[in-house]
């Protein structure tokens, strides 16, 4: 029989002396009998000593070579080599009787071929086992390199245990090798098909989706993939958690709204009559350098091409919210906001404040993702209050809006929404807001024969006052100011949570009928006491947010630099507590198990100040760094329709970032620096050319600052992101992230204090922002809107028109006839 060259495994690169002796005995045994081979000693051959100890395979082969003359042992060895159930002597057996195997499967084929050569001399092979053809060099090299990566360390004695291969194991190994070689040949022969959008098959047979290439808006497909699936996910979840009508008893009434005259409302109006000088430089459009100055409560005409809107509210903006409306209603969009009376006014966190303030409601018109309003933004009406400044406000997420044409019996009016407001005197008031159309009719009836005030400013009686403490105490418990509010996002939206100065979190049950939690006042309003209070932080609760998917979970951020996740079923201990930095605001995205955090830069490490995504703790992911910022990020907002966040900071830059799929580990996210982009950047520049030679502005008051300087807004073209990383806004943002310096010794006139994404499907993609200058701007992220969102919007509008078409056409129709009203 001709000698066959065996296939060597990784451990048998150098042939040991035992194998040389075995080969010599094999060649001598071809022409002699077994008896003759007993008297022929096998001379030892000198070979280079192998490093390390002999493996079990070599010891087994040596034992076989020394036992060739044992006639009784040969059938046993052959039987064990061909699939016996007993383990050889000296080898540890598994519970089934089969010895432990090594990780290197190539040794199995080597032992099989060697056993065939040894047994072919003394015993015939069984009919089902035959000689195999030698492998080619190319396939052997591929398999060896592949197995080298999968094999464990050779120095581990526990892994160096051989086993005798059976017929089934050998056949399975051959099938695996053939499939692996076939897959490797296919992947090498078709590289172009794999690089396209076709799914690539792994060795396990599972399709791996590929997101390669650029989307039509210029972003990479891997960046836009989570954005495309967000509209359908958000729509399906809102169908489950949102309602068409809630709180039917809290309707706006004409008798609770009193109009103020020009002299009466003067003390509530902001102090600045005109805005500071500002200019707008839009990317791709040659501006003529016009400087604008807007009167109080006035607006610029919306830009025909870029759709941006700018208006002046009279003071620094510190609170802002969009009014929710049903999906597909095509209703006008409203924004509620508050600004300080004076540009230099400041409020201490440790003291209660009272005094006049003005809550404004602005009408932005009918906004769509790709088109803006043709008319200017206008002040719809305002509410005059005497409870100090406003720290936060939140609308009821759903069930509070009805059609303006809804016919109500006087003195009731059609309802625009329910708004909870946190004041600096420690009170939380709940307002039932009417549509401006109904309020205007009431104004004409009340002010007959007299001069009409220029703007509608009213004194309003709230529908409920939310107070901390208990009915037995009779007065406030002294929790201090309320800084943050959050309305329960699941229908029927019964709970409202608030965070206070002393670290207390209070939760009210709004529709309660309990005599211990609800007291009716002589004026008809309600005074509500919380059904649950717990100490969440050692200092003020800066921000609070409810989980949008599961209402049992709440997240709070305090001035003790901690972020805590709470399960409201066991509030004695948070489910997760993270201490990293001083948080200014948090937002919980709809489909993910975590929050996006904006932070103050006073406690942040160098290079880590900015926007972070923090997992709630269930998945155990590390924090994901969304975007770096040089200064304090005052506000952050998220869009459930676009899978994006937007943040405004002290440097005057409004930044947006498209988030990845955060249901997977953020450590595997690619292109993190390509996901963020600027919306606009505000800079303070000198008015005269002579002032350009001066140093940076050092004015500490508003009057000194606007005397010699103006604001310059540099807007980004948000319609497309093609070649975005070589465009001027992106290069400017990246340069400022590395080299910019903060000027904290002057008034930050360009600072952005509040930014909000629209929560409505009809205006998704729109956002508003405002800050120290009192100039509020609205922009549309046209480039992020997708065909999926447009298609969903058309379907919702068709469904809304089918449901409420008769009521839209007939103002005399009752809302109960069309399903707007439900039984409590």
UniProtKB/TrEMBL annotation:
Keyword Glycoprotein annotated: no
- Give the span(s) annotated as Disordered: 1-54, 122-210, 804-824
The protein's matches in PROSITE patterns, at most eight in alphabetical order, are given as: WD_REPEATS_1, WD_REPEATS_2, WD_REPEATS_REGION
Which segments carry the WD repeats? 534-569
- Residue ranges annotated as compositionally biased, kind Basic residues, are 1-17
Gene Ontology MF: a single term = RNA polymerase III general transcription initiation factor activity
User: What's the subunit arrangement here?
Assistant: Part of the TFIIIC subcomplex TFIIIC2, consisting of six subunits, GTF3C1, GTF3C2, GTF3C3, GTF3C4, GTF3C5 and GTF3C6.
* Main function: Required for RNA polymerase III-mediated transcription. Component of TFIIIC that initiates transcription complex assembly on tRNA and is required for transcription of 5S rRNA and other stable nuclear and cytoplasmic RNAs. May play a direct role in stabilizing interactions of TFIIIC2 with TFIIIC1.
Question: In its UniProt entry, what is this protein called?
Answer: General transcription factor 3C polypeptide 2
Please tell me the species this chain comes from.
Pelodiscus sinensis
Please name the gene that encodes this protein: GTF3C2
């Amino acid at each position: 029989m001709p000698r066959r060259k065996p296939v060597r495994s990784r451990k048998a690169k150098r042939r040991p002396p035992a194998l040389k002796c075995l080969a010599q005995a094999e060649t001598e045994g071809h022409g002699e009998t077994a008896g003759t081979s007993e008297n022929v000693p096998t001379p030892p051959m000198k070979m280079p000593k192998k490093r390390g100890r002999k493996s079990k395979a070599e010891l087994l082969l040596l034992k076989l070579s020394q036992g060739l003359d044992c006639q009784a042992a040969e059938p046993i060895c052959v039987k064990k080599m061909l699939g016996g159930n007993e383990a050889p002597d000296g080898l540890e057996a598994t519970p089934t009787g089969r010895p432990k195997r090594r990780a290197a499967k190539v040794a199995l084929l080597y032992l099989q071929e060697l056993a065939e050569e040894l047994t072919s001399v003394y015993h015939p092979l069984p009919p089902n086992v035959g000689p195999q053809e030698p492998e080619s060099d190319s396939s052997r090299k591929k398999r060896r390199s592949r197995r080298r990566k999968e094999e464990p360390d050779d120095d581990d004695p526990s892994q160096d245990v051989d086993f005798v291969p059976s017929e089934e194991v050998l056949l399975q190994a051959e099938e695996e090798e053939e499939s692996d070689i076939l897959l490797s040949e296919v992947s090498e022969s078709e590289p172009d098909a794999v690089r396209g959008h076709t799914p690539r098959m792994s060795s396990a047979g599972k399709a791996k989706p590929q997101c390669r290439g650029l989307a039509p808006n210029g972003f990479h497909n891997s960046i836009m993939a989570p954005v495309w699936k967000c509209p359908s996910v958000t729509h399906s979840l809102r169908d489950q958690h949102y309602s068409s009508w809630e709180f039917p008893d809290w309707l706006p009434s004409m008798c609770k709204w009193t109009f103020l005259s020009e002299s009466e409302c003067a003390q509530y109006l902001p102090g600045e009559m005109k805005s500071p000088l500002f200019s707008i430089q839009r990317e791709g459009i040659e501006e003529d350098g016009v400087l604008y100055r807007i009167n109080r409560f006035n607006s610029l005409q919306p830009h025909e091409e870029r759709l941006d809107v700018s208006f002046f509210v009279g003071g620094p903006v510190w609170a802002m919210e969009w009014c929710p409306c049903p999906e597909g209603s095509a209703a006008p969009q409203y924004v509620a906001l508050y600004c300080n009376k004076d540009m230099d006014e400041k409020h201490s966190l440790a003291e209660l404040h009272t005094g006049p303030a003005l809550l404004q409601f602005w009408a932005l018109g009918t906004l769509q993702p790709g088109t803006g309003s043709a008319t200017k933004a206008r002040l719809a009406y305002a509410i005059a209050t005497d409870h100090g400044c406003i720290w936060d406000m939140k609308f009821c997420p759903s069930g509070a809006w009805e059609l303006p044409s809804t016919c109500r019996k006087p003195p009731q009016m059609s309802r625009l929404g329910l708004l909870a407001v946190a004041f600096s005197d420690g009170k939380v008031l709940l307002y039932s807001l009417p549509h401006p159309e109904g309020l205007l009719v009431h104004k004409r009836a009340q002010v007959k024969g007299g001069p009409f005030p220029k703007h509608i400013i009213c004194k309003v009686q709230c529908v409920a006052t939310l107070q901390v403490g208990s009915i037995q105490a009779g007065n406030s418990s002294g929790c201090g100011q309320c800084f943050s509010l959050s309305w329960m996002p699941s229908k029927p939206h019964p709970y409202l949570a608030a965070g206070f100065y002393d670290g207390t979190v209070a939760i009210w049950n709004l529709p309660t009928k309990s005599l211990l939690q609800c007291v009716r006042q002589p004026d008809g309003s309600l005074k509500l006491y919380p059904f649950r209070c717990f100490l969440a932080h050692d200092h003020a609760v800066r921000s609070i947010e409810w989980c949008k998917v599961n209402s049992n979970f709440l997240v709070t951020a305090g001035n003790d630099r901690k972020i805590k996740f709470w399960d409201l079923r066991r509030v004695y201990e948070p489910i997760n507590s993270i201490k990293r930095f001083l948080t200014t605001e948090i937002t919980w995205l709809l489909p993910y198990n975590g929050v996006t955090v904006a932070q103050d830069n006073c406690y942040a490490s160098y290079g880590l100040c900015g926007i972070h995504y923090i997992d709630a703790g269930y998945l155990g992911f590390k924090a994901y760094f969304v975007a770096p910022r040089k200064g304090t990020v005052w506000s952050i907002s998220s869009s459930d329709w676009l899978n994006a966040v937007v943040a405004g900071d002290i440097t005057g830059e409004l930044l947006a970032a498209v988030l990845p799929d955060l249901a997977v580990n953020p450590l595997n996210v690619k292109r993190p620096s390509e996901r963020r982009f600027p919306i606009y950047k505000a800079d303070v520049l000198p008015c005269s050319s002579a002032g350009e030679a001066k140093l940076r502005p050092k004015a500490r008051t508003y009057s000194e600052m606007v005397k010699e300087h103006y604001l310059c807004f540099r807007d980004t073209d948000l319609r497309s992101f093609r070649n975005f990383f070589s465009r001027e806004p992106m290069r400017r943002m990246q340069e400022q992230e590395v080299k910019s310096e903060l000027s904290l010794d002057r008034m930050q006139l360009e600072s952005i204090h509040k930014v909000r994404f629209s929560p409505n499907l009809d205006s998704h993609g729109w956002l508003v922002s405002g800050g120290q200058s009192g100039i509020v701007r609205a922009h549309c992220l046209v480039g992020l809107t997708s065909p999926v969102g447009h298609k969903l919007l058309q379907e919702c509008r068709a469904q809304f028109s089918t449901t409420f078409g008769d009521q839209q056409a007939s103002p005399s129709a009752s809302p109960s006839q069309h399903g707007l009203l439900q039984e409590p």
